[in-house]
Amino acid sequence: MKPVPIPLTTARPFIPAQRPPVGVTAAELRQAARQVLLRNWTGASTVPSRSLYPHQWSWDSAFVAIGLRHLSAPRAQRELETLMSAQWGDGRVPHIVFNPSVPLGAYFPSPDFWRSSTAGAGAGAPGHVETSGIVQPPVHALAAWLVHRADPATSRRRGFLRRLYPRLVAWHRYLTVHRDLGGHGLVSAVHPWEPGMDNSPAWDAPLSRIEPADPCSFRRCDLDHGSASDRPTDLDYGRYVRLAADYRDHGYRDGDAPHPFAVEDPGVNALLIASEHALAQIAVEVGAQGPGDDPGGHRGRAARLTDALVDRLWDEESGMFLCRDVRAGHRGEPIRERSAAGLVPLVVPGLPHGIVRTLLRTVGGEHFGLGDTVRLVPSYDLKGHAFDSCRYWRGPAWFNVNWLVERGLRQYGHTTRADSLRAAVLASAAASGFAEYVDPHTGAGRGAREFSWTAALALDLLSRSADRSADRAAVRTGMRVGALVRSGTAG
Fold first, then answer.
1. Residue 299, class by beta-carbon neighbours within 10 Å (0-12 exposed, 13-18 middle, 19+ buried)?
2. In this protein, which residues make up the domain named Mannosylglycerate hydrolase MGH1-like glycoside hydrolase (predicted)?
3. Better-predicted residue by pLDDT, 228 or 31
4. Which of 113, 174, 315, 443 is the right S-S partner for 91, CB 3.0 to 4.6 Å?
């Protein structure tokens, strides 16, 4: 059934995706994105980028699989299978799976910092591979369902969903049982890296309580590959290291660790809800039966999580969902920073109409400016005290966030707005050389280039429409993608 649009009272026109309207075609952009994913493929999984992120990252691989399914369904399945093969006995899916062929000094924190196979043995860390001990947003079931739908015959022949389903169920059970630290039905993140928006200003207040690690006790590798003005400060990084080391020293056992940083994040919980809906569809496909692990059980869990999300994190005054600091006050306190995480719940089916209307006004309003002052949704409030158009998650626009918002707009029937955002994402991906993130005002690429999820999600957006003339219009830009492909370096 076609969704009925929820009307907006203050809709604004979208600004053009990119000027001048000359240059690259959809076919060239598709080929360029394909080349990025081929170059970043390791034989079993895809690295986010060859320089800055030389291992497998959890939610990166989920987004990569969503794009890879348009090139090779078996390879997209392999992407998720490789990640899930590193799952811990308690169900957690680690945020990094380390490649043993990469030198320890190439990335920090490295395997010898996390020491998963020894420090995490009590929590069921695998012995055959080293991983980190924290997690990232649970978008994996949604990715698995989309990958299956791309080629159901191959998926069924390989037993893809049948093998992955129990692992995904265990993953969600870990989050809902071990990570409900607030006791109100929502998942808590215990490290700023877990919600994926690592350096968000929303973490500043809860992080201020953390004593940073001695700067002489570690060496940052990220500054070898990027500008210090784009990356977290040394002070914040020291706090990240302290939190991770303390969790490690408690054996990664959530019942034993004090978790001085514990935040209910709307993006994490929204993606869990979307993935519970996907698990319901997977359960139908595999014929799952059992208490709670059947289609009805997953739908019921999604409904309870949605109720808790609205009850705990919706803030009418802000016009969006806010993070909640579980360690502040009796019930925790809202963190009054407008982060893009508060817009991600647009991917949740069945939100109350009034909340959807308000969210859509917020997306296009002064704080996020989509269609008024910016082409892409920024990661943080344009008028916020900590806004920085260049620094990691403190303002720049990220392609996965915009892909999620585009999906939400389309889900709630706002196809014109979704089409405009889709066009802007494709144009920005092309013009920036598939950058990790971009300045929301100028579109200038920041961070790594040839970033895997940027290429993968561009492929997904290109493949979603049969209207190739619309594709050509969407990606017209002054950049020569053919030169990008031939040179082997984007940007």
1. middle
2. 53-454
3. 31
4. 174
Dihedral class, residue 287 (left if φ above 0, else alpha if ψ from -120 to 50, else beta) = left
Give the helix/strand (H/E) hosting 263: strand 263-264
From residue 287, give the alpha-carbon distance in Å to each of 138, 165, 296, 329, 432: 22, 11, 12, 44, 44
pLDDT of 216 over the 90 cut: no
* Residue recorded with tokens 């699989």: 65
Residues 6+ apart with CB under 8 A from 81: 160, 163, 164
- In this prediction, residue 219 has a pLDDT band, given cuts at 50, 70 and 90, of low
Instruction: State pLDDT tens for residues 398-456.
Output: 999 999 999 999 999 999 999 999 999 999 999 999 999 999 999 999 999 999 999 99
Set 198, 222, 315, 372: catalytic member:
198
| Residues 283-334: tens digit of each pLDDT | 999 999 877 789 999 999 999 999 999 999 999 999 999 999 999 988 899 9
Q: What's the 3-state SS for 278-346? A: HHHHHHHHHCCCCCCCCHHHHHHHHHHHHHHHHHHHEECCCCEECCEECCCCCCCEECCCCEHHHCHHH
Q: How many CB atoms lie within 10 A of CB 408?
A: 26
The answer to whether residue 16 scores a pLDDT higher than 70 is: no
- Contact (CB, 8 A) for 244 and 166: no
Preceding omega of 109 cis (within 30 degrees of 0): yes
pLDDT higher than 70, residue 266:
yes
The CA distances from residue 21 to 16, 26, 433, 470, in Å, are 10, 13, 17, 13
Active site residue 285: no
**Among 243, 279, 235, residue whose Cα is nearest residue 261:** 243
**Coil, helix or strand for 37?**
helix
The contacts found for 208-211 with CB under 8 angstroms, 24 or more apart, are 209/260, 209/261, 209/327, 210/239, 210/242, 210/243, 210/260, 210/261, 211/239, 211/242
Is 230 considered catalytic here? no
| Angle, CA of 376, 382 and 388, to the nearest 5° | 95
* Beta bridge mates, 324: 264, 334
Count CB-CB contacts under 10 A for residue 491. 16
- Which residue of the set 90, 194, 419, 436 is catalytic? 436
Mean residue pLDDT of the chain comes to 89
- Say how far apart CA 151 and CA 470 lie, in whole Å: 25
CATH class in words for 27-466 = mainly alpha
